[in-house]
Design goal:
This protein is of the alpha+beta class. The protein has two domains: about 5-140 and about 305-315, 3-Layer(aba) Sandwich (Aminopeptidase), CATH 3.40.630; about 150-295, Gcn5-related N-acetyltransferase (GNAT) (Aminopeptidase, 3-Layer(aba) Sandwich). About 30% of the residues lie in helices and about 30% in strands. It is elongated. The structure holds coenzyme A.
């Protein structure tokens, strides 16, 4: 098999890589929007050392593989990614590339290897065949605003609370309050550090620098922010918006504030950004409460991501 290792991929290599990843994605998920080039390239160059391989196929690539070697080899797992053109599958190409990536991980001193797969695609039997175990399942949910009517939830108005909304960075007089409300998510996301007003502003700045628009709806109890939800509308593909954080501060939970702010957000986007066709959100399997809120609003399961782990020594 002709294999090229690429130390410094050129623009044409990146284009060929993206063409292959898109073809694989569309084949495994017909009808799904294709990943955009920035996503593909971000995955290849997301910081830290990488090794990249491609199998040439005519003027294009028939298969590609990458291994990411982040941080301290004694502490962090390597992450591998293998893609094979649909018409070249089941000939051992994927297994061969997996072997190269695993060898690179071992040579770098990694004892564990991570990989991601979408449920229902060949990646699942492929990874399981080589002894990968599924560590975590994350469901992505999609809501299509044109198909739901959130007005009843938007009219909930729990007594004692009022709403405020803004685009971009939080207004200065609410920045500290907002950082405190963001810290309320800590009991859901492990390792989430406490937010400060500066971190909140930096996060909003980063969204703006990417050319994306950040929308926030918050519920106030007196001067305090007790719940909020954020949606980002990408500048390049505004049809596909993303749910960012939603949280309700302990002590104010169980009053349908999460449902209320999310429904008001939908109404707002409907007026302001009618070009948004779908909003995507991820809920890890253990967050039953947020899943219930999202289902009540009309979010439906779209994709299931699986995170897999194997010991490097067990791989081919
Ligand atoms: C997953 C993928 C890389 C497999 O590539 P491939 O070249 O077809 O894999 P191989 O031919 O080396 O398969 C090796 C073994 O994996 C298992 N396997 C692979 N595809 C399978 C499928 N569709 N159904 C059941 N088992 C499968 C089989 O045990 C196979 O051995 P066999 O053909 O002798 O039965 C390919 O389907 C792909 O590109 N998928 C999309 C990209 C992706 O999701 N990558 C993430 C995983 S890193």
């Amino acid at each position: 098999m002709d294999i090229r290792e690429m130390d410094e991929p050129e623009d044409a290599d990146l284009d060929a890589w993206h063409t292959l990843v898109s073809a694989a994605h569309l084949h495994d998920h017909p009808g799904d929007p294709a990943p955009d080039p920035a996503q593909t390239i971000g995955r290849i160059f997301g910081g830290g050392a990488r090794r990249l391989w491609a199998v040439p196929h005519g003027d294009a690539f028939g298969a590609v593989a990458s291994v990411w070697l982040p941080g301290d080899p004694a502490l962090r797992a390597a992450e591998i990614d293998v893609h094979v053109l649909p018409e070249l599958r089941r000939r051992g190409v994927g297994a061969y590339l997996l072997g190269l990536a695993a060898e690179a991980a071992r040579a770098d001193g990694r004892s564990a290897v991570l990989a991601q797969a979408l449920a229902g695609t060949p990646a699942v039997p492929f990874l399981e065949r080589f002894g990968f175990r599924c560590l975590l399942t994350t469901r992505s949910l999609v809501l299509r605003p044109a198909e739901v009517d959130a007005s009843a939830h938007a009219a909930l108005n729990p007594p004692g609370y009022r709403l405020i909304r803004w685009t971009g960075t939080v207004p200065d007089h609410l920045a500290v309050e907002f950082a405190q409300a963001k810290s309320a998510m800590a009991d859901h996301a492990e390792g989430e550090s406490a937010w400060t007003a500066d971190v909140v502003r930096d996060t909003a700045d980063n969204v703006a620098k990417r050319g994306d628009d950040l929308y926030t709806v918050a519920a106030l109890h007196g001067p305090k922010i007790v719940g909020f939800t954020e949606v980002v509308v990408p500048g390049d593909v505004p049809a596909r918006a993303f749910q960012y954080d939603t949280a309700v501060v302990p002590g104010h939970r169980g009053r349908r504030i999460g449902l209320w702010v999310k429904a008001v957000m939908l109404d707002w986007l409907g007026e302001e950004r009618p070009e948004v066709v779908e909003i995507e959100t991820d809920n890890s399997d253990d967050n039953a409460h947020m899943l219930a809120v999202n289902e009540a609003l009309g979010y439906r399961p779209a994709r299931e991501f699986r995170e897999y782990l194997a010991q490097a020594a067990d791989l081919p």
